[in-house]
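Quarterly update from the structural biology core.
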Amino acid sequence: MPAAPHATPDHSPVTFRRPHRQPGVIPPAPGHRTDLLLLAVAICGISLSAPLIAATAAPALAIAFWRNALAVGTLSPFILLRNRTELRRMGRRAVLLSAAAGAVLALHFGLWLPSLSMTSVASSTALVTTTPIWTTLILRLRGQRRPALVWAGSALAILGVVMVSGVDLSMSSRALVGDALALGAGIASAGYVLIGAEVRRTVSTAAYTYVCYSTTALVLLVVCVCSGVSLGSGYSAPTWLKLLALTLAAQLLGHSLLNRVVHGLGPSVTSTAILLETPGAALIAALWLGQRPSAAAYPALLVILAGLAMVILSDRRDKRC
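Predicted structure, tokenized:
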């Protein structure tokens, strides 16, 4: 009798089985570890933002403009040579969404940086880092139910930020305006992350980042010109060097890598991880500027990491289901 089709030498039929998986164990997704590593680099980059801004003798809005304009100038030769075809082929929707993300990022900078001079740094930091809450709320309004673990992790991470920055809300009218600006900046940051996540579904990081930063620089340029902000008159050489360092660390490594990983990690994980900027900036300021962080900075870092771990775990379970 002839052998049955697809039979082994002992005539046992060939069967294909899924590899055994232990209950409760969630295997890492391809590229997940790489995204987490890049996220860590991005957090280090944006953590340098506040110390560099504090050490730079230039108006806040001018600093925001130059970090975006210099980033566009740095990216232009590479983008126009390697991604020119993709830029031409970007659909109208992708271009409009990328430009919208850039406008929202400009709004974030335009609200948050002035708030630092109107209210306490502690209050401004605590309010601007409410981004994960707004991200989760916006996703809920769009019909995406977020697991309870995401809410709990976000709340725990924000508690860690409050531990290190404190809440020092003042009743003066100027301070209240500053608090409102910082809160608006936190909402704008959530919009920036969510729009970026949508665009990155079909557009590369390079193309999206280029359109986004170009729009941000253009919007901030208009704001600076209309408000009479000096964009370079009287700037010293050390000031320009710090602006270049801010562009490299906070913009090209920080924001650009956040735009890269949001595609794989999702907006909830990315926005929660941004909370690590607060203790990160405090530790960098201690080493570089001699500003000793409060005793709560170290346990706060652990609390934020625990909250972030909860959000990441929930996100991986959600993708598995």
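Residues 205 and 260 are 5 Å apart (CA to CA).
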